[in-house]
Amino acid sequence: MRRCAWPLLRLPARAGLVPRHGGAAARLRPAASAASSSSSSAGGDGSSRAPDTSLFVPVPLKPVGDAAEEDVGAELTRPLDKGEVLKNLNKFYKRKEIQRLGAENGLDARLFHQAFISFRKYIMESSSVSADLHIILNDICCGAGHVDDLFPFFLRHAKQIFPMLDCMDDLRKISDLRLPPNWYPDARAIQRKIIFHAGPTNSGKTYHAIQRFLSAKSGIYCGPLKLLAHEIFQKSNDANVPCDLVTGEERVYANEDARQAPHIACTIEMCSTNTPYEVAVIDEIQMIRDPARGWAWTRALLGLCAEEIHICGEAAAIDLVTELMYTTGEEVEVRNYKRLTPLTVLDYALESLDNLQPGDCIVCFSKNDIYSVSRQVEARGLECAVIYGSLPPGTKLEQAKKFNDPDDPCKILVATDAIGMGLNLCIKRIIFNSIVKPTINEKGEKEIDSITTSQALQIAGRAGRYGSSFKQGEVTTMHRDDLVQLKEILSEPVRPVKAAGLHPTPEQIEMFAYHLPDATLSNLIDIFVSLSQVDGLYFVCNIDDFKFLADMIQHIPLNLRSRYVFCTAPLNRKEPFVCTTLLKFARQFSRNEPLTFDWLCRHTKWPLAAPKNIKELVHLEAVHDVFDLYLWLSYRFMDMFPDAVLVRDIQKKLDDIIQVGVCNITKLIRASQSAAAPGTAAVVSEDFPLSRTKRDTRVVSDRHGAKSIEALSIAAEVPGERRGKNLKTHRSATRQEDLKSHGRGSLANRLLREGLLTQEMLRQLESEWQDQHRNGRYGLGSKRDDQNSSKEMGKKKK
């Protein structure tokens, strides 16, 4: 295996050729400076940043045991006095000149310390060392040598345990991401015409791009969702334009003989950058800034081999796309569109579900709110459809069809922001149940913050779709206080898209692994990102999900390419059942045992019955994700996942079962409430107040995950100001009595009587509210309350 060889490592074999009496430091400095200079210019402009050495994991180096060959050094001189050796090694470590010399050779304070500890342990615990090192150590102990003479041996050892030091130039070159356009020579070989269709939701921008797609001899549509790809697939074939469907889990051919059609509708990650097309359509280009998936839009924009590239999305991305195309020598033609139907922000909030009208859509940002609102809607004798992100695509389409059907009694939709794209809905009025949404920040922490202007416009724009029965759209909020803030959000300009996402390719990781064969995949990715260089137009996408899967399957023996594929599998890492299944897939794959249909049925306990409560519905959704995972892997390892056809058949049956569950969601909620075990969270009661959340930011530790979010959601649904005053007035000796004295017929007492909350849950709620008081959110509380709250929070953490 080739390495970047440095002259310092080519040590003389004979004792007489080793520098002595301080000469090592003097003679090594020029070479070290040259190496440092070479390293600093690795990026080509001398601006490469220093690596994060905390990511460098040392390779274990075992001391030489008693079974080693004869100790030649001892025969030539004498056995070493390990006590004297230890004293001299410690002197060597404390020498400022040696530390400076180490820094010049890539050993910062952290690496220098780790390398020395390993070097000292190796010498002290080895029964014998190499002859040249033995002679140098003997000379130093006898006063005939200088501790500086140990540096070449120390450096050699350091590069054995930190092999990346020996090939830093190569690693920097591999991770240099400053010229992504050069990664796609086929696209650079043609002159492409770039047309940007810019406009808000419901402006017809995608329609015009698709018309050009249908009229072309060949074309590819790249969308963010399977639903969108499926819609274009159906539209094309209905228009007698043969079109194939390509997603991560599915290949559907327009031709019966499975010949590839000239048109393809695909999810954007699946687009080919090698196949030539006349027209390509890239939808929702603003997602190029997405911290997880942005790389797919960058790859499509820079790499598609099409004579015309039609880009659809927000005007906020125009400047970035123009700059990116400038680097490829291509001009951008911008076509602006205006909304086809008027959208009005109402001056009044809904305030009560009694004021609902046909065509209303209530938008929530959590499943808890979906369950609560849908239960309350149906309690008023209104039938509602339900759509949220984790539902299978088929179920979403059926719920949308049910809501859109003028002959169906279902006239209300309760949904998450999953309706923002991919579904055509006949909505008259969008009602924001809340204007705050849980998100994950760059540090992997949960944040609850106000929705952005882009998100608000995307969701609000679904009202009054052109061609529907509603000629104009309306938008408002559930609560009066939120309406003022929503108007502020909608009036703000959309923040421009500043940078495009990038992601390490399998080839780049393979080259890294060539140089660092002992590093784990997770560590390779960390080092890659640490060394990567990008210019101002790009950023490296979040790799937390990739690393999570890499660490999860690290103990399973897989080759690097297969390991990389498993780590890019599309799954929600917060679904334990799905993660466990991936682990079992990888383990069986490593044993070269095909994962058959029978094996999958045993694992998922298929066939499955219709859900009887919410917990069972959630499990069915997880099983659907497992089937998706199997299908995704079957297109990458066909021989090991051979039963894709059978799995797709049972997945369709499972989709029907989930549809039945969603149609009866209020019955499932009631069943969940009646069967709720003590100490477990139950779905809220029929007359539970709708969620009211202040416009603020709260960070919740990822370690506590969804549990903290659910608790926060329940806590937020208790009217804050009234509860705060009562708490201040009725504090008693114990927290239990305090909550019981919340007033005759209060919400807390009702929930206790109905068995929906336990005393432990109530104590947790009060603790959370006390924490809010301590932060001054409601202007209540005292030092004593703060201390009590802090003590209780401490006990919970313990």
Automatic annotation (TrEMBL):
GO-annotated molecular function: ATP binding; hydrolase activity; RNA helicase activity
Residue ranges with Low complexity bias: 29-50
Compositionally biased region (Basic and acidic residues): 782-798
Reaction equation(s) it catalyzes: ATP + H2O = ADP + phosphate + H(+)
UniProt keyword terms in alphabetical order: ATP-binding, Helicase, Hydrolase, Mitochondrion, Mitochondrion nucleoid, Nucleotide-binding, Transit peptide
TM ranges: none
Ranges where the record places region Disordered: 29-57, 720-745, 767-798
Cofactor: Mg(2+); Mn(2+)
Signal peptide residue numbers: none
GO cellular component, one term: mitochondrial nucleoid
EC number, UniProt record: 3.6.4.13
Matches recorded under SUPFAM superfamilies: P-loop containing nucleoside triphosphate hydrolases
Compartments where found: Mitochondrion matrix, Mitochondrion nucleoid
Main location (coarse class): mitochondrion
Every Helicase C-terminal domain range: 345-510
GO-annotated biological processes: mitochondrial RNA 3'-end processing
Family as reported in the entry's similarity comment: Belongs to the helicase family.
PANTHER family named in the record: ATP-DEPENDENT RNA AND DNA HELICASE (PTHR12131), ATP-DEPENDENT RNA HELICASE SUPV3L1, MITOCHONDRIAL-RELATED (PTHR12131:SF1)
Name of this protein: ATP-dependent RNA helicase SUPV3L1, mitochondrial
Source species of the chain: Calidris pygmaea
Taxonomic classification: Eukaryota, Metazoa, Chordata, Craniata, Vertebrata
